[in-house]
Structure formats: C-alpha cells, structure tokens
Amino acid sequence: MSESSSGRHIEIAWPALGITVTAELDGRNEELADALWEALPYRSLQGHALVAGEHLYHVAPIPSLLHVPAQTKIADRRDAPDGTVFLSALQHLGIKYGTLTEPMPAAPVGRIRAQDLPALLEAGRAVWDSVYSTKEPILVEVRKAGTEGGHRIPHLTAADADANRLIHDVHAETERIWLTEPVELAELHRGVIPSGAGSFETVLPTLLFVNGETRPLGYASYGGLVRAAVQDMPMDSLRHMARLLVGVPAEFLGYCGLEPLWAFTQRFLACLDHLDRDDFLAVVSQLALYVNTLGAWNLHLYPWDSGDHLRQHRPAEVGSQS
C-alpha cells in the first residue's frame, strides 16, 4: 500500500442525472479501500435496495471484495450517518442516503462530503424510479477525484487450457452485458421463453423464480466457493461443494432462458477435476462476477410496480381497521 486511504477522494457520478458526489476514503478498512482505489475508474449499472430502504448499491468489478475481510464493521448499518460508503462481500459498493430498515453489520470505507448530501438524495430518488418503474437504466461512474473516467472488467487467467478458455469466454460475456441488458434476460422479460417455462403461459412466476435463483447463485454459491478456496478448504471438498451448489440452479436457469449461464456451468463442471487451487479460484471468481452481473440486471428489469397496489399496513392502521 503506497499511501493511507485516509485523505484519498473518489467521485461517484451519475452522468444521465448530471449529478456527481465526492467521498473521502477515511482510513477504515484499508485493505478494502485499497482494492477499490486500485480498480478505479469503472462504470456499472446503478441499483437500489428493494427491501432495506434508502440505499444505493452496484456491482463493483473487484474480485477481491468476495474474500477480503473487513477489519472494522458498523454493527447495524441503520445507525450509520447518511452518506456512508460501504464495500460488501456481495461484490457491492453501497451508499446509505436515508432511512434503512434492515439491521445488518456493514464495512464502511468512507463518507460522502456533507455539502453533497442533497445531491445524493436526489440521485437516490431518481434511481428508485429507474429500478421500480421506468426501467430506464442509470449508469454510475466511480473514479479518483479530479481524474478522467473509464471502464474495465478484470480478466483473470488459469494455467489449465480448458479453464483459461472458459475464463476468456466468461470475461467476454461479462463485458458484453456489463452496461447493456443481456439479450436472454430482455427476451424473458418481454415474455419470449423458448422452453415454455411458465405454467399456463404465465410470465411473472418465471421472472420471480429466475431472480430468486440467480441472486443466491452469485452471492452465496460462487461467493462462498471463492471464500472457501481462499481459506484453504481442501480441494476435494471444494470440488464436491461446487458440484452440489452450482449445477442444479444453473440448469434450471438455462431452462428458463439463461442458456449462456448453463453452458458456462457445464464447462466449469467438466474441467473441475483438473483444476488446482489457483485455477479453481480464478474460474469461480470470474464466474461470480458474471453471475452477479446477471443478478443486477434481473433486479433492474423485474416489474416491481406490478405489485404497486400492495402497500404495508402499519400497526396503528391495522388496529383502526379491526
């Protein structure tokens, strides 16, 4: 590490909104902050929390986020000041911009400067509209303050020839869909499902199941395999867990239309017995980023406002209706 993260500043911009905010990396969780700093600049699809409240997050193209431990955690992120910037083992950069409802420990790395909080709130509300109703993608750019923006997806490598070809193809596909909706997901959300998945020609249940399988496949299965490999789980156990965790959901998702994902999974499982730890880690890290990208687009494309007629009843309201 060439310099302390404290005093380093990053800009987080939403060009379509004409909004840029500045955050200081304030010395907390130095290793995570370094990983972010070294990955800059990048662009990503901006997402918004759907159950936790006023929180922005996006997939960051930083493989090490999956396994680098946090030295400092806020025990309950609801208590964090507005503008706190977090990095997550779900491969997310998150920003709290208002009230949160979900109690969760979180790893802070910095904070948006006070004068930018009104602009952050404006961005948060616009992104919520994008995710919940308009479906117009909003891209975010993260860069070192005062520098030009840019974009790159890390391309890992493996010594095993089959694994290296797989990594190359997964990287190319991730590049293709990183800032542009995946064709297979766009078709699915338009109701074009070649397999006929969806009982009695329904579409919404299939969309729900696809979202419900893709997110844990990236967050838990591939993220978990990365962490297990880094933490020295025996290779026989890693191979066994990979077969248990990724095949069935990927096959189902392929049936629902995510055929590239299923094809990549079959190639991974076919070369699994030949991989040493380094190659295994490279493959699952590249696949984790790809699957998390699919998950981000799923969350953006899903028609959340189809349930707009359903609203929560607060205890006082329930009592008054009884």
Automatic annotation (TrEMBL):
InterPro entries tied to this protein: Cucumopine_C
Domain Cucumopine synthase C-terminal helical bundle: 164-301
Superkingdom of this protein's organism: Bacteria
Protein name: Cucumopine synthase C-terminal helical bundle domain-containing protein
Species the sequence originates in: Nocardia yunnanensis
